[in-house]
Specification:
125 residues; globular
Length: 125
């Protein structure tokens, strides 16, 4: 039997992704970083251990080339990964939740980035 997420769980993950990105969307370093989140989606295809993902996020936060973006969202993302780990002890369920969370982040990021470009202010309407 394959793992599935409930509607409530999906709603929780979408809300968390949107909240994290909304808080960062008007800050310096947010623009044009879709590839950073797409990298996380790819990593989550193979990895579901929160400690490993946290380690990678901390690495990205420390790298000069990527730190501005990750410093905006690292705490929120790591906190959400820890919450996913707490709620999903079974491997398949945890992996699906992590993949979904990062997928929702990419979708919302693309939206925010485009709205910011259109507004010219870097702000979400």
């Amino acid at each position: 039997m394959s793992a599935q997420l409930s509607a409530d769980e999906k709603r929780t993950l979408v809300t968390a992704a949107e909240t994290i990105l909304d808080a960062a969307s008007q800050r310096d370093g947010f623009k044009d970083q879709t590839s950073q989140l797409r990298n996380m989606v790819q990593i989550a295809q193979e990895e579901s251990e929160v400690a490993v993902l946290r380690n990678f996020i901390r690495y990205q936060t420390g790298r000069k080339a990527t730190q501005k973006f990750w410093q905006l969202i690292d705490k929120g993302v790591i906190d959400q990964l820890l919450e996913i780990d707490r709620r999903h002890s079974e491997h398949a369920s945890r992996k699906l939740a992590i993949q979904s969370f990062f997928g929702y982040m990419v979708r919302h990021y693309v939206y925010l980035n485009e709205i910011n470009k259109r507004s010219g202010k870097g702000a979400r309407p």
